[in-house]
Design brief:
Blueprint: E1 4-13, E2 16-26, E3 31-35, H1 42-50, E4 57-62, E5 75-78, H2 90-100, H3 105-118, H4 134-146, E6 152-156, H5 164-179, E7 183-188, H6 191-197, E8 200-205, E9 208-214, H7 215-219, E10 224-229, H8 235-242, E11 248-252, E12 255-259, H9 263-272, E13 277-283, H10 287-311
Parallel strand pairs: 3-7, 3-8, 5-6, 6-7
Antiparallel strand pairs: 1-2, 1-4, 8-9, 10-12, 10-13, 11-12
Helix pairs in contact: 2-3, 3-4, 4-5
Length: 316
């Protein structure tokens, strides 16, 4: 059963469309990265999934529940800017939250100790929260989200504003949770972070989901193969001699770049001509490449539609 299902989900605030006709499925055990600039709709989607606000139209299920509040005890949520009672120690704060969640006695104490260990706050557990650094506060927020051992963990910008060391510590925690099989929804501005921690990704742009898929598929979407010729042969000379100009994207030095779909035909020509090959490998993109190209294409499409509408005398 999918952990999150959204079907044509829309949220409007008056004339402003914060989320527009979003359809998305996140499977159990996935680590899903939600990307988008400020105002793209990430926080709106999280609020909908948590049941803090309600959709204008469309349907959604979280952990099989249409009424999201029924799934709250199975969801862990860490806000981007958590608020704490700073006079509490970390341990006392988590102990209090455990009791609110229905954990008591030895069960609660054991759970508190376990989550403190998960986020590496054992040594600071008995210090007042007011003495914690920003990175420690963010780890405490994740510990809070883990208190009920949730099936779904929603992390909203967990490394935003942290120093590099604190960011690394948070990423190690998330990576460990992923290895445990937790379903994670990670909202982030950091593309390299999502690429490292997530196996699936979605890109929101002005309320619309403009791209989604597995990280592996998206990074290999370019489908370009690089061939390095043996014995320092001139790629340009080989291309000219074998009449492969239409099949080659780039020829430089001893290197050829071709589309994956013509790989078999190009290799056949090289073998037939007795031309040695030193290496062959598919090229992949970074998630940053995917994000920039996808959002740029979306902007170009919006611009064309806008211009076309005005050109026909319509209102923009």
């Amino acid at each position: 059963m999918p952990v999150i299902e959204c079907n044509e989900l829309t949220k409007a605030y008056g004339k402003h469309i914060a989320l527009d006709n979003l359809t998305l499925t996140i499977e159990e055990g996935a680590s899903f990265g939600l990307l988008g600039e400020n105002g793209a709709g990430k926080s709106t989607l999280v609020r909908l999934l948590m049941g803090f606000i309600f959709p204008t139209s469309g349907q959604m299920r979280v952990l099989g529940e249409e009424r999201v509040s029924r799934a709250h005890d199975r969801i862990g949520y860490a806000h981007e800017r958590p608020i704490f009672e700073t006079r509490f120690t970390g341990r006392r704060y988590l102990d209090y939250l455990g009791k609110l969640a229905g954990l008591w006695g030895a069960t609660n104490s054991t759970r508190v100790s376990h989550v403190l260990e998960q986020v590496n706050l054992q040594e600071a557990a008995n210090r007042p929260i007011g003495t914690y650094s920003k990175g420690m506060l963010q780890r405490l927020a994740i510990a809070q989200a883990l208190m009920t051992d949730p099936e779904l963990l929603i992390l909203d910008e967990p490394t935003s504003g942290l120093d590099p060391r604190s960011q690394w510590e948070i990423r190690q925690i998330v990576a460990a949770l992923r290895k445990q099989g937790k379903t994670v929804l990670l909202c982030s501005h950091y593309l390299a972070e999502v690429e490292a921690l997530c196996n699936a990704v979605g890109i929101l742009r002005r309320g619309e989901l403009i791209l989604s898929g597995t990280v592996e598929d998206l990074l290999h979407l370019q489908d370009v193969v690089e061939i390095v010729l043996a014995h320092d042969q001139s790629a340009n000379e080989v291309v000219t001699r074998l009449g492969m100009a239409e099949q080659v994207i780039e020829a430089q030095g001893d290197m050829l770049r071709i589309a994956g779909k013509v790989q078999a035909a190009v290799l056949a020509k090289l073998v037939e001509a007795g031309i040695g090959i030193a290496s062959l490998k598919p090229l992949s993109r970074t998630l940053e490449d995917v994000y920039v190209q996808t959002t740029r294409a979306a902007d170009d499409t919006s611009s064309v539609l806008f211009t076309g509408t005005r050109g026909h005398g319509g209102k923009p």
